Amino acid sequence: MTNLNYKQILSTIILCAALASGCGSGIAGTYSADARLLEGREDLMEPGYSLADIRSRIGGGQRTLKLLRGGRYEWRTGGEGLNLGTWRVEGATLILRDDTVGGIQISPALRDDRIWEIRPNGEIVSTGSYNAYNIEEYYTPG
User: What is the Cα–Cα distance from 40 to 70, expressed in whole angstroms?
Assistant: First the structure.
C-alpha cells in the first residue's frame, strides 16, 4: 500500500467518524414539532391529552428543535421554555443531552440522554413523550 492510499483511507475513516458523531451532520437545521396518532391506534380523548389538545400546545411553531453545527442544540418547548445542550447521531438515533433547562444550568451528574428516532423520511420522533396517550410527537425541517 502506498502512502497516498493510506492517507486517503485514513481521511475517509476520520470523515465517517465525524459524521457518525453528529459533527457536521446533514441533519443540522431547524425543525418544527407536530403530533399524530400512533399507527393503528385511536385517540383516547383524555382531557388535555387528546390529539387536538397536544397539537394546539406544540404545533404551529410553538415547539422547535434547532440542531446547530458543532453539536449544540436549542429546544424551544413552548412558551418561555428553552433547553440547551449537546447532540450527536448514532445510526438512526438522535441523542440530546440538556445542560441548561429554562435558564438553569444542570449539574453534569444529573444530565441524562434524551433518545429520539431519526426516520428515513427525515422526521425526528420524540419517543415516549405522549405514547401513553397513543400519540407521537415528531419534528420536520422548516
Answer: 38
* Residue range 91-108, pLDDT digits in tens: 999 999 999 999 999 999
Q: How confident is the model at residue 25 (pLDDT cuts 50, 70, 90)?
A: low
Strands (E), 1-142: 29-37, 64-68, 72-78, 81-90, 93-101, 104-105, 113-118, 124-126, 135-141
Nearest to 22 by CA among 116, 132, 104: 116
Taking the domains of the chain in order of start, what are their residue ranges?
Answer: 3-141
Of 33, 35, 69, nearest to 142 by C-alpha is 33
CATH of 3-141, one of 3.40.1000, 2.40.128, 2.60.40, 3.30.390: 2.40.128
111-121 pLDDT per residue, tens: 999 999 999 99
